[in-house]
Sequence to fold (143 residues):
Amino acid sequence: MSNKISHSILKLRFDRPLDRVVEVKDLRGAVANLYPAEHLLHQHREDGKVIYCYPLVQYKIIDGECLLAGFKEGAKLLTNLDLAAKTLLLGKQRYTIITKELEFHQISIGITDVLWQYRFLTPWLALNQKNYQEWQTLSKDEK
Fold:
């Protein structure tokens, strides 16, 4: 049994190479600040509280390249973002987007007879210590 979901990858290229101190949180914050009403970009409700669910838009910096990955509604959102020629504050410096490249796919998710192996290209931490303690207080349905 297989389900198809939308998946997109948005690659951003800037006017110069990223400084080594630029972090994923900088990219996430800069893009989210351009579109504060789009909660999928920053995982916060209008009242500022965190939305605890799997992020449908994820941010990556891999080998100095900035990527945004979208799933389901997040994939569609990335196709509609107007980031061309936008200037972002990343770390302590401003970078201007000179090109963006978008890939859009329908991918199958489900049970298969084939064994797939995955590896993380970047470290992943589901919750920090503070958010983990808050998560522990939630009911089963809220988790």
Summary: Strands lie at 2-14, 57-62, 65-71, 87-90, 93-110. The chain has one domain: 2-113.
